[in-house]
Amino acid sequence: MANLQHGDHICLMYDSADQQRATIVPFIREGLERGECCIFVADEHTTDEISALLEKSGIDVRRFSDSGALKVTTKYAAYLLTGSFAPDFMLDFLGQSIEDAAKKGFSGIRGTRR
Asked: Are 62 and 55 in contact (CB under 8 A)?
């Protein structure tokens, strides 16, 4: 992951919750260290559970959230506002997130869900 360049896309694959954590946490940490805005969509977990996972892994969630570098949000805010998957809404959410990150001076943006 350290070799990722802006514009690269990756699909994070895993067979278990442990593998998922072992993949997602370094992905987010690397983005924060690079000065990128990181969006973590709580899909099957609550935002509190995601924040606790990141904190337990040594990421200062409050500091990065307060600076706007880390956004832990819900699947409803990201793509289920209407109650079902809405691709246009999700694309608007992503577009606005990219625009906001650029305006705030972040070097890039990355996202994941769990």
From this structure: no
